[in-house]
Amino acid sequence: MPEPDRIIRLKTVLFRTGLSRSTIYRKITEGTFPPQIRISIHGAGWRESDINRWIADPVSWRPKGQFDEVC
After folding, report:
1. Residue 47: which domain range?
2. What does the pLDDT read at residue 61?
3. Is residue 61 part of a domain?
C-alpha cells in the first residue's frame, strides 16, 4: 500500500530545496515551482510529491497535466 502524500510547510521546503523564501514565491508566480495548497484559514503547505518532483528535475518541472504544445 503506497504511503499517503504528506503536506510540508515552508521551513521544510526551504531546507529541502536550498532556495530562499523570495525565490520560491517568485518561481511560483513564474510557474516554475509547485504552488502552495491551503490547509487552513491562515496556513498553507506543499504536497511532498510535488517538491520531490521539482527537486528531481527543477529545470523542466511543470505542473501535472501541463504539456508544452508540439508544433
Report:
1. 7-56
2. 79
3. no
Report yes or no on whether pTM surpasses 0.85. no
**Mean pLDDT calculated for residue range 49-54:** 94
Q: How far is CA 55 from CA 4, 42, 71, in A?
A: 19, 26, 29
Which of the pair, 4 or 23, is modelled with greater confidence?
23
Asked if the structure places residue 26 within a domain, the reply is yes
Question: DSSP secondary structure string, the chain?
Answer: -PPPPPEE-HHHHHHHH---HHHHHHHHHHTSSPPPEE-SSS-EEEEHHHHHHHHH-SSS---TT--PPP-
Report the distance separating Cα 31 and Cα 36, nearest Å: 12
Does residue 40 lie in a domain region? yes
Q: Are strands 44-47 and 37-38 parallel, antiparallel or unpaired?
A: antiparallel
In angstroms, the CA 15 to CA 46 distance is: 13
